[in-house]
Amino acid sequence: MALESCRLRSLLVGIDADSSASAPALTRAMDMALAYRSTLTVYVFAPDLLQPFPLTLGSSSIWIEQEEDRIEQASEEAARSVRQLAAEKDVAVALEHAHSPFEGRYQRFIALARVHDLTILPAAEPSRSWARPAIEHAIFDTGRPVLVTQKERRPIAAKVAIAWDGSARAARAVRDSIDLLMMADQVSIATVLDTKGSEGLQSADELGNYLRLYGIEPKIAVVANPPGDDEGEPIRSFLASEQMELLVMGAFVHSRLRQTVWGGMTRSILENCPIPVMMSY
User: Fold this and answer.
1) Is the predicted pLDDT of residue 258 greater than 50, yes or no?
2) How far apart are CA 36 and CA 152, in angstroms?
3) I want to staple 120 with a disulfide (CB 3.0 to 4.6 A). Which of 13, 46, 47, 59 is the partner?
4) Packing angle between helix 168-176 and helix 199-212, nearest 10 degrees?
5) Superfamily grouping for domain 7-149
6) 159-280: what fold?
């Protein structure tokens, strides 16, 4: 596929003000921006507050000033590291960060994600209190796909797996990732037996016909589902055995309430997946 026709024209990556510029998500975003000739915006999330908002009026103004100074200093240090890495890689970046402890932590990030083709975020870990909410917002509140990455990988994945169950969300994930699929050397449609009925297996051939319209010749893999509570384990085992480099899948929740509960497969994959995951909702 000619890069001129690639739809990944704008990328957004979220990083932690306390993390170094060599974070895998940032490095991957810069490499992808170069590979796909995309623009890149870096959003620096504010560090956690050091202490709760004081109750006394006299101390509150001092607390606000101290926290604003700390946020600004930490964000500027992260921005300097980003600019240094960008200069080394010869990639242009736009930078944004919070300036006040009273700014909504995710509102600006969500607004930015809605006007970028792809959001890139690091995997949620205990040391990143902001990462899981950021992933949830990126998936469920932006209408755009999100790429969750754990390690530094080459920007164009050669071997891509599609977790296919025939659902609308899986279909959207395939459409959102079509540029990545067209650049892959190998694409596999992986359908897990006995999950969400047999719709995925029944429509796998039709998905293959759809992908062939884009010059993609996929393989169809039926993945066994051994007994156990971990819904993501069959897909993880398939990814490992086939040495896949990217997983494409739809995201699911068990509740439509605002405080979402990730579905079993979504939660399992996001909490433990050895390769980057491209998700849509």
Assistant:
1) no
2) 17
3) 13
4) 20
5) HUPs (3.40.50.620)
6) Rossmann fold (3.40.50)
